[in-house]
Structure formats: C-alpha cells, structure tokens
Amino acid sequence: MARVAAAFPIGGPHASERLRFELGRRVRADGVNIGQWPGLAICRFTQSIEARWNAVERLSVAILVPAGDRRPVYAVIGGGSRLDCRILKASCSQPVLGLLLEIDPQVVRSVSASMGGPRPAARYDGEPALSVIDVEMTDTVVRFLESLSTGADRHFLAPLRLQEIIYRMLQRDQRSRLEQLAASLAVGGPVAEALDYIDRNLAEPLSVEILAAQVCLSASAFSRIFRQVTDRSPYQYVKEKRLDHARRFFDDGRVGVADVSRSVGYRSVSHFIKEFRNQFGVTPGGYAEMRTRQGGLHAVARAGPDLQTAALSR
C-alpha cells in the first residue's frame, strides 16, 4: 500500500480546487478529451463508471480529482500496467476529472541522475498504487496546465513545467516505481523493444522464446525482467493485449468473430471465444451484437473507456 501525503493546509483556496478549475476549463465533453500537449488526455466523468487506463505501455502519470472534498490522487503507470478506477460518485455539477500524461523515460533518468541517481533499494511491488498528491506537487501540475494556454508558453514553459513534475514525483513515494519503469522503458531497453515487437506482430506467434530472441536474452532472463516491469508474465501480457485489441475491433464495428480471432493471433476460434468470455464476461458474438445495437456507447460497463488510446493519439 502506497504511503499518502500530508493534508492540504487549512484556509484559502485549496490547490486541489485550482487543479479542478484548470482541468474543468480544458474539457469540452464528457469522457476523454485530447489535451494541448503530446501524450496528454484530460477526462471528465459525470456518472458512475469504471474508468480504465488500459494496458498503458508508455511511461505515464495518471491523476484523478474526485468529486467533493476528496483529495486528488496519482499513479505512475507504464510497461503494459493497467489501472482500473471505479467512479462511484459523480454528477454534472460535481464531475470527477482526471488526466493521463506521457513522460519521457530519458528525462526521468536525467533528472534522477542530477538528484544522485536511483536509490539502491529501489523496488516496487504489485499493481500501480494510488498516492495522494500534496500541495507542492498539485501546484506544479497546475503550472504545467497553465503553460499550455498559449503557443509561446507551450514552447518555452511547458517542457520546464513537465520536468518539474518529474522532479516532484522523484521526491515522493512512487520514486522507485518511476525510476524502474524509466530504466526499463527507455529507448533500446529490452522490455520496451519487446512491447514494440508485440504491438507490431500481434497476429503472429509470440512465444517467450520468440520474444526473448528479439532482445537477445535467454527465455528465463527475459521472463524475469518482463515480469518485474509489467507485473505479469509475457504469456499473460500477450493474451490480454490480444483480447483488448479484439474488443477494439468490435468497438469499431467488425462483427466477424473468426476474422477478429485471426487478426489478433488466435489459431483456434473456440479458444478465442473462451478467453474473451473469461476476460469480459460475455462472448465475442454477444459483445459485438451489443455494441452494434447500442451504437458503441456502453455495451459492457467493465470494458470502460480506453484512456490510453486517446492520450497517445497525436
């Protein structure tokens, strides 16, 4: 369980209110909105829903600002990690706001080195954890959002503000996770290369041996490193990736179960149907039918909005 930061100071406008204001004025509609910075998505939820940062591969920070007086929280994600957040309380007058912001692993490593390098005992364990954002870090995020208002500010100030966000995160309890993901996902890193290969060859055989050969590691060494970064085995990651892509095909209107099965690398349609049902609680045909009947809105609640897809659309 991640440690939480100190409470906001009493009196005066809360930093969280400033963050809510900056996010609120930059969203045009419910759901996911493309931000004014590469790799930035800002979202607004006005009803209960399961929001999913789905198999996020690129190093990113996710921030949620709950409705009411609850404080904002953040998580460091990447390397195929998933963060599911169930929105229990939201309305048009009190929406839940959030953002997903991609971070350059090389910048993280550079800032970390200037701070004395990674901590010797740097380890993270399990799925992404949520940490409460304190006043200092909230102010930094607000300044970054403010720097997106004009072209000149985006060019000169935004990169500095983003670097400051990284600096603040490296001072806090998710430093170990941030440093390890940055090291693993930097350009040329074995896990980053493997994730890229999986993306480009999803319809092809993707055994541990094949993936390990792509990054010049033994199968055992590759599996160990891959699990450290993604919190899952290569087999589990590939399976989830294929099923997520299949779901997106159905979301886009493709209805042929056998065709979709082949497109995401399944040689057996019956095996695909079984694993899809285990993952999403409905058969592929049933899911496709619901998406077609309901116009692609909210056929299956647990599928949720895919925030990474919007965030990484350039």
Walk me through this protein's architecture:
The protein has 2 domains: 15-185, Jelly Rolls; 190-297, Homeodomain-like (Arc Repressor Mutant, subunit A, Orthogonal Bundle). The strands form 2 sheets. It has a 6-stranded antiparallel β-sheet with strand order 1-2-7-4-5-8. The radius of gyration is 20 Å and the shape is globular. The chain has helices spanning 15-24, 105-114, 135-146, 151-156, 158-170, 175-185, 190-200, 208-214, 219-230, 234-251, 257-263, 269-280, 284-293, 307-311; strands spanning 31-34, 40-45, 49-56, 60-65, 73-77, 81-87, 96-102, 131-132. 39% of the residues are buried. The chain has 314 residues and is an alpha+beta fold. A hairpin with a 7-residue loop joins β4 (60-65) and β5 (73-77).
Shape: globular
CATH architecture of the largest domain: Sandwich
Q: Helical element count?
A: 14
The name of the CATH topology of the largest domain is Jelly Rolls
| Strand arrangement across the biggest beta sheet | 1-2-7-4-5-8
User: How much is the radius of gyration in Å?
Assistant: 20 Å
H/E element sequence = HEEEEEEEHEHHHHHHHHHHHH
Can you tell me the CATH class of the largest domain? Mainly Beta
Q: Between the first and last Cα atoms, what is the distance in angstroms?
A: 34 Å
β content, as a range? 5-15%
Q: Classify the helix fraction into a percent range.
A: 40-55%
Secondary-structure class: alpha+beta
What is the total domain count?
2
In the predicted model, the low-confidence regions spanning at least 5 consecutive residues are 1-13, 296-314
